[in-house]
Amino acid sequence: MQSRDRNRAALFALAITFTAGIVLTLYRLASERHLDRISNFMVAVSKPSSISRCGTFRGSNEIWEESQLKYLRLPDDKFTIAMQTFRRPMELNNTLQALLRENIPSLSEVVVIWNDVETVPPSNFESPHGVTVRFRQSNENSLNQKLWPDPEYQTQAIFLSDDDIYYEPQDLEFAFQSWRKFGKRRMTGGFARCAVQEPGGRWKYSFCSTEQGHNMYNMILSGLAFVHISYLDYYSSHDAVLQSIRAYVDEHFNCEDVAMNYMVSLLTGEGPLLVKGRVPFVNLAPANGISTRPGHLEARSKCLNDFVDLFGCMPLMNETARVEPGVIIS
Amino acid sequence: MQSRDRNRAALFALAITFTAGIVLTLYRLASERHLDRISNFMVAVSKPSSISRCGTFRGSNEIWEESQLKYLRLPDDKFTIAMQTFRRPMELNNTLQALLRENIPSLSEVVVIWNDVETVPPSNFESPHGVTVRFRQSNENSLNQKLWPDPEYQTQAIFLSDDDIYYEPQDLEFAFQSWRKFGKRRMTGGFARCAVQEPGGRWKYSFCSTEQGHNMYNMILSGLAFVHISYLDYYSSHDAVLQSIRAYVDEHFNCEDVAMNYMVSLLTGEGPLLVKGRVPFVNLAPANGISTRPGHLEARSKCLNDFVDLFGCMPLMNETARVEPGVIIS
Predict the structure, then answer these.
(1) Which ranges in A82-123 belong to alpha helices (H)?
(2) ipTM score here?
(3) Does B90 lie in the same domain as B15?
(4) Distance from CA of A47 to the nearest CA of B (A)
(5) Would the CA dihedral through B48, B42, B38, A131 be positive or negative?
(6) TM segments (chains A, B) (predicted)?
(7) How many domains does chain A have?
(8) Which sign, positive or negative, has the C-alpha torsion B281, B286, B291, B292?
(9) Are residues B192 and B302 in the same domain?
């Protein structure tokens, strides 16, 4: 009698396991087949995208999926300014004042990335419009600090910026809305640059050209660019290639923005997005900035080619379109 | 013994049913919760979007889901021109010649919607660049013919156009690429118009304004606009509201494009997208066209208000951004 009960219980358990397995498999197959038929025209819900193929770079779909899922709890209708500064209090104050004097409806917080490890940063404060300005001292003067996915960030959208360049407040809000509508998978901002291939095959850094047939761009610099926080997460991850990239950036003290453009286009297969404001952005362009030093263009060209080696391909995508505000009457 | 076997079989069946139910429910809950967390930042796969809420209009999510799924087998990297014409052979030939004289890489087919029911249309032909021009005679002279989802269309993208207006070939390709990248859920084209609310609450049709604070638009006319074929499908469906709309368009011989803008914004909750080409689009604007007749603006304003009644809300969304070609050097 006990043995018969045991048999019955075993049979029961077997039935349960077996059925669960079959039902689960059938359900998964059915829903995958259904999803496969649906294009990105419909955007109600999605699964994490996988990495687009380019040369020998494979990246880690595991890290990328994690980077995408990690920040979904954050709102996407507000943004954070991540502004890097190093011993230029006048430019910094000037830029902060310009950004805080008007209400920018979607601005949540300004984080000043204080790369001077020797001087204590000013205290945090709140602007008259209720925006918190938080000073975050870096533990080393590294350009990678600006691209670090600070766990205290409260928004999906991060506006990467420098202390000497800014969109006027209205235009910054417009650029953010453009990022939300058109540029979430792109570096979206005001400052375009080009990698152009020379006859011998080498890549050359340039300011781009508006000549017909060349009127395009393939990078948006991180002095003035919205980027989704998931890209900062992947950039700062333990992916082996990105580890080499970060070491390269620290060694050469340059090209973190070139690296970011490579990485975003590698992950998405898309180009960046140029957004022009109602008025030109302001560039305080100090005479001692990195980008005006002799040899700057050569150093940037070297990065372009070294990164092709490090990533194993040239991922930048040419984009011919830009976004501007306003209607045209016709 | 037989009774015990029956009991055992019944218990077994019960176990199977019970387990299947539980597993399926748990799996569905888990995957829905997972999907809910994922924003449209990730676009790899999606499920059909449901209709956004606006006033009393509910639409039919069933029809809309069907309209979305029906055309997924069609490529999204080519487009079809659907050009409406009525007894204007000179304008028609002029426009066809302009569009066919250069290679437009993504153009798949031109369908001329021949609304003259009394004259036999010309024969189909193939352009030197291999584009088929197909004449499709309407069975009635109705403006709804242009918005009919012809089962012979071979592409998801349909470029709605008239016989007297065109983008230059390069710009048409640019507008198509902009649709693909930024405007799949929008009426995307070259010709913007505005519905503006007057102090009394009535809506007024206008050419829009570039004055600060008003520099926006909420309609793109179908003389020059890309639209996804799924929207044509819903427009032509048995949804009761759309049936009244089509009857209205036939009765007034006007406003099919206004109706389309209402419907697309109702379905998506998004505005349209203005794309400016490298050069201005060509408008042959004959003196006897509908839009130059006296009373045109009043008739269009009447449509705006009548459609608010028919749809049960004002769904148009103001858009402040437009797309243009080329880089800006800074």
Answers:
(1) 89-100
(2) 0.85
(3) no
(4) 6
(5) negative
(6) 9-30
(7) 2
(8) positive
(9) yes
Residue A3 has pLDDT above 70, yes or no: no
Instruction: Based on the residue annotation, tell me whether B257 is a catalytic residue of this protein.
Output: yes
Ramachandran class of A269: left when φ > 0, alpha when ψ lies in -120 to 50, beta otherwise: left
Instruction: Determine whether the interchain pair B24/A19 forms a contact, defined as Cβ–Cβ distance below 8 Å.
Output: no
**Which of A14-23, A178-187, A315-324 shows the lowest per-residue confidence on average (mean pLDDT)?**
A14-23
Alpha-carbon gap, residue A68 to A64, rounded angstroms: 6
Answer yes or no: do A281 and B330 touch at CB < 8 A. Answer: yes
pLDDT of amino acid A33: 35
- The active-site residue out of A162, A163, A233, A257 is A257
Neighbours of A176 (CB within 10 A): 25
Instruction: Give the CA distances from residue A7 to residues A4, A12, B15, B18, B277, in Å, rounded to whole numbers and listed in that order.
Output: 5, 8, 15, 20, 77
Q: How far apart are CA B324 and CA A215, in angstroms?
A: 11
CB contact under 8 A, A39 and B72: yes
Per the CB < 8 A criterion, the answer to whether B138 and B148 are in contact is no
Report CB contact under 8 Å: A49, B31. no
Q: Which residues of B264-301 are buried (b: 16+ CB within 10 A; e: fewer)?
A: bbbbbebbbbbbbbeeebbbbeeeebeeeeeeeeebbb
Q: How far apart are CA B243 and CA B58, in angstroms?
A: 15
Give residue A17's domain range.
1-36
Q: Compare all CA atoms of chain B with the CA of A281 and give the residue at the minimum distance.
A: B330
Q: Which of A11, A42, A320 to mutate to test the interface with B (most CBs of B within 10 A)?
A: A42
In this structure, the answer to whether residues A30 and A118 fall within a common structural domain is no
Confidence at A25, pLDDT banded by 50, 70, 90: very low
* A122 and A9 co-located in one domain: no
Domain-located, residue B41? no
The DSSP string of A129-145 is: TS-EEEEEE-SS--GGG
| Best to test chain A binding among B158, B166, B224, B327 (most A CBs inside 10 Å) | B327
As a whole number of angstroms, the distance between CA A268 and CA B43 comes to: 10
For residue range B197-252, what is the model confidence (pLDDT) as tens digits? 999 999 999 999 999 999 999 999 999 999 999 999 999 999 999 999 999 999 99
Residue A41 inside a domain? The answer is no
Is residue A14 domain-shared with residue A95, that is, in the same domain?
Answer: no
| Per-residue model confidence (pLDDT) at position A198 | 96
**B50 within some domain:** no
A119-145 tens-digit pLDDT: 999 999 999 999 999 999 999 999 999
Is residue B262 pLDDT above 80, yes or no? Answer: yes
Residues of B in contact with A283 (CB under 8 A): 330
- The residue from B162, B171, B257, B306 that is catalytic is B257
A305 CB burial (10 A radius; 0-12, 13-18, 19+): middle
Q: Mapping DSSP to helix (H, G, I), strand (E, B) and coil, where does residue B272 land? A: coil
One domain for residues A152 and A10: no
Give chain B's length. Answer: 330
Across the interface, whether the CB atoms of A39 and B46 are under 8 A apart is answered yes
| Residue B330 placed within a domain | no
- Specify the CATH number for the domain of residue A196: 3.90.550.10
Query: Are residues A116 and A246 part of one domain?
Result: yes
Question: Do A154 and A189 belong together in one domain?
Answer: yes
